[in-house]
């Protein structure tokens, strides 16, 4: 493809995006006005499905299909990184033990915060339909907590306690079960990802129908995917350059 062709193709795409943006801005409600169509629709829907966290209601109920697309993008990014950063056998053999010292206070803080961070991540995922948080946020917290081993200890310690294979299985299983939950909604409620489980009592842990189920699945997928992704980046970073 020539430079002239690429330029025209880029210009056509930019023009299309500009038209969409201008159209969206022209149709926006007046700033400071009393008309908020999305709010007026989303809030009653969240209350009707016993979901105190309005953001989770939007992500895992009203726009659960969009969340499936975002989850798929995360999985595709991990697969792409695995393909590009997979070290060869010779490179794996060149990964030597980590040298240098870690300050005792850093080790103590890391070991102390590791279980706290893991518990916090689980809490954020499980209670995502009740309080601020959810699967995406909690998954990142869980992956971060796991890698406190690397900060406070060493890479070999992290490598020994990091089940990469199981994380790969968990990421694939969580993504697949998200689709299965959508198909269950299609069979029981007539719509893909329809919220067909009992809504329960407002404010209780077992409530909001499929919202906490999807939040947990996304939390597993994000946490496992980030662990696998960071493993590849750390592996590449610790391979010494050949002289």
Automatic annotation (TrEMBL):
Transmembrane segments: 68-87, 108-130, 136-158, 170-193, 213-234
UniProt KW keywords: Cell membrane, Membrane, Transmembrane, Transmembrane helix
Extent of the signal sequence: none
GO cellular component terms attached to this protein's record: plasma membrane
Pfam family, one: MnhB
Membrane-topology annotation of the record: Multi-pass membrane protein
Localisation per UniProt entry: Cell membrane
Na+/H+ antiporter MnhB subunit-related protein domain span: 106-227
Protein family according to the UniProt entry: Belongs to the CPA3 antiporters (TC 2.A.63) subunit B family.
PANTHER family assigned to the protein according to its UniProt record, in alphabetical order: NA(+)/H(+) ANTIPORTER SUBUNIT B, NA(+)_H(+) ANTIPORTER SUBUNIT B
Record-given protein name: Sodium:proton antiporter
